[in-house]
Amino acid sequence: WALGTPGLWFCPELSGLSLGPTLLRSCSQCLLTGSWRNDLGSNMTISAVDSTGAFSGKYLTAVSATSRRILESPFVGFQHPTNETAQPTFGFTVKWTFTNNTAVFVGQCFMGADGKEFLKTMWLLRAAVESPGDDWKATRVGTNLFVRNP
User: Fold this and answer.
1) Average model confidence (pLDDT) across the chain
2) pTM of the prediction?
3) Which domain covers residue 119, as residue numbers?
4) Which residues contact 55 (CB under 8 A, 6 or more apart)?
5) Which of 90, 87, 73 is nearest to 125 (CA)?
6) How far apart, in whole angstroms, are the C-alpha atoms of residue 78 and residue 54?
7) Is residue 2 part of a domain?
8) Which residues, at least 6 apart from 15, have a Cβ–Cβ distance to it below 8 Å?
9) Hey, is 11 helix, strand or coil?
10) Is 134 helix (H, G, I), strand (E, B) or coil?
11) Nearest CA among 10, 19, 23, 4 for reference residue 111
12) Cβ neighbours of residue 28 under 8 Å, at least 6 residues apart?
């Protein structure tokens, strides 16, 4: 993956070849923008990432502990510049529209050996509780693998 020099990346499709830095800079980059599906069947769409790394989007979870109807929920986040690494780290916060919970995701966008992008994430889900005595059960943690929707 990253070789340690900003702008120079490992490209699985070019490994084993003697190539100069100019060609290596043109290797595939992992881009967040677009539609993604995770290992639980949840879907999210990420809008264009702006020059500061900011982005927003919509998340439709496939799983929930609530009995309420699940609705699409907005999120906002940031990623590190892709001119520094071909596989950027990122984070975003989801404001669930159907419950008083909030989720934060952190992760990294990777290019697989097959040239396909995927996102490895870890999340925290904070539930609203009635008292500080219930704080112990208010936060859940988990991981998800996202792939591009076809």
Assistant:
1) 83
2) 0.78
3) 29-148
4) 32, 33, 46, 47, 48, 49, 76, 77, 78, 79, 90, 92
5) 73
6) 4
7) no
8) none
9) coil
10) helix
11) 10
12) 11, 13, 86, 111, 115
Contacts of 74 (CB under 8 A, 6+ apart): 56, 57, 58, 59, 94, 95, 97
Q: Is 13 helix (H, G, I), strand (E, B) or coil?
A: helix
Average pLDDT over residues 123-148: 96
DSSP letters for 79-108:
E--TTT-SS-EEEEEEE-SSSS-EEEEEEE
Residue with tokens 């950027």: 88
Q: Is the dihedral of CA 59, 64, 68, 69 positive or negative?
A: positive
Cβ distance 86 to 80 under 8 Å?
A: no
The pLDDT tens digits of the residues spanning 21-42 come to: 434 334 578 889 999 999 999 9
24 falls within a domain: no
> For residue 22, what are its two tokens?
């100019």
Asked, for residue 11, whether it belongs to a domain, the answer is: no
Contact by Cβ (8 Å): 127, 141: no
Please state the rounded mean pLDDT for residues 43-50. Answer: 95
The two tokens of residue 145 are 């693998």
Residue type, 145: L
In this predicted model, what pLDDT tens digit does every residue of 65-100 receive, in sequence order?
A: 667 777 899 999 999 977 777 889 999 999 999 888
What CATH number is attached to the domain comprising 51?
2.40.128.30
